[in-house]
Amino acid sequence: MQALQGTNIYLRALEPEDIELLYTIENDSTFWEVSSTQTPYSRHLLTQYLANAHLDIYEAKQLRLVITEIKSNKAVGIIDLFDFNPQHKRAGIGILLIESEQGKGYASEALKLLINYSFNQLDLHQLFANITTDNHKSLQLFKKYHFAEVGVKKEWIYTNGVYKDEILFQLIKK
Fold it and tell me: What is the pTM of this model?
């Protein structure tokens, strides 16, 4: 667990008691833009998802971890590796914090932990992130950890009647 523990937070596997956290996050339509979701999820469907959350990243091609505050043991968000490709040693990374927990440094600490885990334990060569041009907090966060802007996907995301550009970032292991 040391690899996934920081000063203020730790990253842990999903547990059955995370159903309410997932239900809240997955059904918050303000997050649907980044997850390509268009419909709500039922508790039943999320329970089934949790039942399969034990699958290895090599099987599932993704890893979802809960960002948990050490002091209170409270779940404050989730961080994901997705589109995991062991052949090419790469994965996408996404992060989401409950709004009331934003601005406390948890996202930064979680991202740092997952970068280290990805490069040192999973032996990945690179990570990538897709961030809309208006998501200033995420742009600042990923730039802080030296993710490089490598391209812009024009009018890539359609939300609330507006097209948004999405920036592709990469972090290549040195």
Answer: 0.88
